[in-house]
Design a protein that fits this description.
2 domains, single chain
Length: 149
């Protein structure tokens, strides 16, 4: 039996593609055995579905950001405007890294490195995550907090 393309199936494929469904899932929803049929007969809908969905979401995000929603503004700045709140230790090309480029609080770097060493040692010794997993698997009805003090 051959698959019949209708306005209703075109709309459904476009919406499903916009929501991120795979070609295999869309084929299953339409009762089509081979996803290649979907790709051949609905190429335009598969391509435009994601773009239309992105446009709808971007429009709502833009509206929220321009109306003063802090979360939307921060997200926009980080993803669309290329801003970041991460510390970057970057030298201009060809220059040797100098300690003058280090953050103003070197004691924090030492503390950070000490924490990393402690985490590495903990992981080497079995790790907290492993202890938590064992404690939750062996629930004896005692202390509900499986983490040691």
């Amino acid at each position: 039996m051959t698959h019949k393309v209708t306005d209703e199936t075109r709309s459904m494929v476009e919406n499903a593609a916009g929501m991120g469904l795979s070609h295999e899932d869309i084929a299953c929803l339409l009762g089509v055995r081979d996803p290649k049929t979907i790709r051949r007969r609905y190429r335009k809908e598969l391509n435009s579905g994601r773009a239309k969905a992105n446009l709808q979401v971007a429009s709502k995000l833009f509206k929220k950001a321009t109306e003063g929603d802090n979360t939307a503004m921060i997200w926009w700045e980080k993803t669309r405007a290329g801003k970041s709140d991460r510390l970057a230790l970057v030298n201009p090309p060809g220059e040797v890294f100098k300690t003058a480029n280090m953050p103003a609080q070197p004691e924090l770097i030492g503390e950070y490195l000490a924490r990393l060493e402690a985490i590495a040692a903990d992981r080497a010794a079995g790790g907290l995550a492993e202890r938590v997993a064992k404690a939750t698997l062996q629930d004896d009805g005692g202390d509900p907090d499986p983490l040691p003090d």
